[in-house]
Amino acid sequence: MPELPQDILMDIFSTLEIPDLVRVGSVCSAWRSAYNTLRDNGQYKRSQTPCLLYTSESAGENVACLYSLVEKRTYKLTLPEPPIRSRFLIGSSHGWLVTVDDRSEMHLVNPITGEQITLPSVITIEHVNPIVDKSGVVQKYELSYHTARQMLYRPSDREHVKPIFDKFEVVRKYEPTERKVYYEPSAFAVDDLREHLHYKAFVFPETSKGSYIVALIHDPLKQLSFARAGDGKWTWLPPYTDYEDCSYKNGLLYAITIMGEIHAFDLSGSVIMIKMILGMTENVMPDSIYMVHAPWGDLLNVWRIVDDEDANFDSIDHVLSTNEIKINKVDTTAKRLEEFKCMHDHVLFLGHNQSLCLSTKDHPHLRANHAYFTDDYDLYIHGYKNSRRDLGVFNLKNNISEELVSPQPWSNWPTPMWITLSLAKMTTE
To answer: How many CB atoms lie within 10 A of CB 158?
Structure first.
């Protein structure tokens, strides 16, 4: 058979799932060239089906396993140092894992390409100060417990403030108040800080700038900070707390609190502006809350309720059970929630990953009107390594969950999470 022109090969290859795309790149030199061009230019156009990323003690300390929902099989990938099984996994989005090493420093890792990017040091986060020895080597970290709304530490340095909104509900200034609450900072060993600071992180490409933003939800009280490619430090985003999930669209960073408040941060200018999209929702008591931009344009507010009444966290046989998932559409004009009864031909991916809503027309191997979920219970992100994880496929019609695969191939630690694979390279400048 005559060799196909490279442009035709690229058109064909761009419709493949990434595992297939990587394989065709190994067939011959012509196919390899087409694959390299697609990879380097980011021209593959198929919407990728998420995989479950996990580790296994038997696979090795540096090996990540990817379970393909399309092929119902597992791939094993060797990742760069430090060992993936020694890291905390605090997020995944756009093909990148966000990890925390045993010195509480953060890295981005692309499991497909093996690329690794070091993020700004943890000591540049607003609430962290290094404690160094005579040689300048960090021995411990001091964690401050202040917020912009409630001064918990060093009241002489900061004032309690509240945001002042204009008629468009954009924060224009902060007004100080007199409230001051004292609370002493804590000192942690370099490998212990991550258990008390890091919660969830996201990577959002800024396509127009050829750059990216990393958003980090962290303690105390689940505050928000961010860093761009090339930044030397994290930028704190006060004054709110209790964030649970983030998304990014049209230059705005959206963040939702556990009580359902949604804020949009405009990070494009020299002054960061905040807009209130939705206020606190009454009678909201979910165990987890997510925010999803649906393909048809709606902003969805998703609640997850977990049964943990008899939880024995040190038992390997016990697993927290997701027993209800509620979906609401955010009416941004009326500023209220409307219950969303059925996802029809769409599915959700929930957990410690970027929350996703995908079409089964584009992903025929997925089950319509279902939610694919992984464990994101606070205690499981930071410990309880022996406890089984709450992971499976949830039928949104009848509130029944099923196992993803049996027997369980993954280790309980680090907690498995969804990842949408990507070959795209990230600029670090």
So the answer is: 17
- pLDDT tens-digit map of 110-149: 999 899 999 999 999 999 999 999 998 999 999 998 888 6
Q: What's this model's pTM, rounded to 2 decimal places?
A: 0.88
Whose structure tokens read 């030199």?
A: 29
Helices (H) and strands (E) in the chain, counts: 5, 30
Dihedral (CA of 74, 80, 85, 90) sign:
negative
* 343 token code pair: 């996802």
38 vs 32: CA distance, rounded Å: 10
The order of strands in the sheet holding 235-236 is 198-206, 211-218, 223-228, 235-236
| Averaged pLDDT, 4-16 | 83
Spatial distance between the Cα atoms of 74 and 80, rounded to a whole number of angstroms: 19
For residues 161 and 149, the answer to whether their CB atoms sit within 8 Å is yes
**Contact 389/54 with Cβ under 8 angstroms?**
no
Segments in 142-280 forming alpha helices (H): 193-196
Strand partners, 198: 218
> And the tokens for 260?
């359902």
> CA 204 to CA 334: how far, in whole Å?
28
Could you tell me if 375 and 52 are in contact, meaning their C-beta atoms sit under 8 angstroms apart? no
For 331-363, what is each residue's pLDDT tens digit? 988 899 998 888 999 999 999 999 999 999 999
Q: What does the alpha-carbon distance between residue 142 and residue 125 come to, in Å, rounded to a whole number?
A: 11
pLDDT tens per residue across span 144-172: 988 886 544 333 344 445 566 665 565 65
**C-alpha separations of 1 from 4, 28 in Å:** 9, 14
Q: What is the mean pLDDT of residues 186-204?
A: 96
8 Å CB contact between 393 and 367: yes
* Strand, helix or coil for residue 176: strand
